[in-house]
Write a structure and sequence with these properties.
six-stranded mixed β-sheet; 193 residues; alpha+beta; 3 helices; 28% strand; tt1808, chain A
């Protein structure tokens, strides 16, 4: 394993082409950095509303998962290495990995989480949402929640064999219909974010 860059070394410029190994040697930062097929992409810090909503969702999922010993939950920024060879490293807002699959988690998540949550900001984040969702499906993520801040709705996308298998929606007053966490009873109205 190569040594990381020193703490005072500059971060590479957005658009820099690099391998996953080179990306993993860049300095640690809280700024959103992702590697999209070898190209470094950087986003500005999310808004406080985005962070509050993502955190509250993560806490609710974590309480459910922890009380049932189902696995672990993390919040961004945390690198999820979906394809080491093709240099695809993303940072979803919330990540859940089931207990049976925790071996993919070391210093980073090295493989497909069971569930990812993306809180969608009014301003676009890194890359195209359609490409991001397609990437999640293609790399084996089982479920993705797309949380729409302005309308306070959630789209739940369930993937099977690299394709969208099921799509459901929940208004703020409705329970989020998760197939990965079917016993979870969570409504956006229950979230303070």
């Amino acid at each position: 394993m190569s040594e990381p860059l020193a703490w005072n070394e500059a971060l590479p410029e957005p658009g820099t082409v690099m391998s996953t190994a080179e990306y993993l040697r860049t300095p640690t930062t809280n700024q959103v950095h992702e590697l999209w097929h070898g190209t470094l992409q950087v986003a500005e810090s999310p808004t406080s509303w985005h962070q509050d909503l993502a955190f509250e969702i993560a806490v609710a999922i974590r309480m459910h998962v922890r009380s049932r010993h189902l696995g672990k939950v993390w919040v961004a920024p945390l690198d999820v290495i979906l394809d080491h060879d093709r240099a695809v490293v993303l940072q979803p807002d919330v990540v859940y990995v089931s207990r049976e699959r925790l071996s993919i988690v070391t210093d980073r998540v090295r493989g497909a989480p069971d569930l990812v949550v993306e809180v969608l900001s009014p301003l676009p984040r890194i890359g195209s949402l359609a490409e991001r969702v397609q990437c999640f499906a293609a790399h084996g993520i089982r479920e993705c929640w797309l949380v729409h801040q302005l309308s306070r709705t959630v789209e739940v996308l369930t993937f099977d064999d690299g394709h969208l298998a099921h799509r459901a929606a929940a208004a703020a007053a409705d329970a989020i219909p998760s197939r990965v966490l079917p016993d979870l009873s969570l409504r956006l109205d229950d979230i303070n974010g």
